[in-house]
Amino acid sequence: MAAPLVLRAQEASPVAAADGAAVEREPDAAATLAWIHKSWDVLSRSMTDCHSLVDVKVTTNPVLYVPADGEVPEAVKGLEGQCGVKVVALPKKIAKVGELMPEEVAAPGLLYLPNKYVVPGGRFNEMYGWDSYFIVLGLVADHREALARGQVENFFYEIEHYGGVLNANRTYFLTRSQPPFLTSMMRAVYEAPESFGSRMEARAWLERGYALAAKDYQTWTRPEHKAGTTGLARYYDYGMGPVPEMADDSTYYPDVIRWLVAHPAENHGFLLKGAEKPTAAEAEQLAKASCDARKSAVCLKAWAGGYRLTKEYFAGDRAMRESGFDTSFRFEAFSGATNHYAPVCLNSLLFRYERDMEHFAHVLGKVQEAAHWKKLAAARLGAIQRYLWRADLGTFADWDFVHAKASKYAFVTSFYPLWAGVATREQAAKVEATLKLFERPGGLAMSNTASGVQWDEPFGWAPTNWLAAEGLAKMGYKDDARRIAQKFTASVDKGYAKDQTIREKYNMETGNSDVKVAAGYKTNVIGFGWTNGVYLRMQELR
Asked: Are 79 and 48 in contact (CB under 8 A)?
């Protein structure tokens, strides 16, 4: 069990009246809904809007990169004068994720996308991979189909020009993707009645999307993404060393080091001795064993008490960020061994992806291709049942393929197989019985381990509450789904009543937005795209 970290972040301040006194409001679902309805425009970004081109996480002057394999769009040509942004073509054409490294471009910057899109909120000023699925669900539910369609078409553009669906459209994300929800987004848009002007237009759109989704699928079948010989996939980032976007959180990696030093039993090859200011010879050795302090300011600052982090830790740290769950203790300390696991979440999503592609192939009259996707899904299902189902515990568990053992870490992603159609009726009944491990007064917590980081207890997030609730509803546990939806939306209502905004995460123990996080992303960002979307969809379960 991971020992709790020392909590340092401050909780959000309540709304203040004109005289400075806190204003206490009663939770009001109508007020929450009114905020959500108007927030889509607040959260929308466009490549022709100067505000959209700023990156608060990197302090350099804004740079907008356009693909090397196309002309600069007319709408972009005037941005240098209007916004003070530098428009630059990428140095080469990109066929797959990780083919162009961030260090191969002169400065970090935004990657051009043709359509308006909705961002998560707060410090996140770009379009994110898995956030967008829940945003799209909300947009469709709120009758904003055109915006939802444009968001999905931006992913088509990423696949065509940047090698695949990216973590987000920034150059420092060119080395990794995010949980594969593309086909789920496509279905949400394709099956919404108001998304297209005609059936012919809808079919042409699906034809294009199907071909590009097949290309994006290859991201997850490359050798680097294989979980050993299991037939399953793992998360993997093609970059090396600390992630550059952590330049705005200079304490994160030192915090990890200090914790590992204080908990030597949790240090599984993650630490090595190293100088704070390495000599040229030491820097050369560190580049091989840890990271290159000569090229990365983040690497140079990743030091505490005479220690640095190993190359293997950074590989796991990067893979953890592709998973979207940054940070938890699910895959050892700070998930530093994420790349050693075949996760339940990823493989459930890929099974759903394969079944969606089979469905699309049938719709498009591609019978042989449908059979191909069906075969892939069947193979993955067999591997999931072999490696990820724990009959002794009555749950699905991540598999450590390096040490050939199942994880004992309880994590709410064990409900993904219900949502994805992986679980049998008997398995679903056993998984439903584990709800007590996660259910709290405010909804479902991520785990039952209070590690002090944001993707663990007592914190709960919209995407996992939604996938678990919808999965339970699909398998016939409608009372559970209704109860979870009521609890989570009540937490959102309480948070909104307190500070008049919607947050990225909530405290499931207290059932509100009072969140204190020890390391990693310490703030509780406002906005918030996926919470908005899930709140709307949960009205259907209530």
From this structure: yes
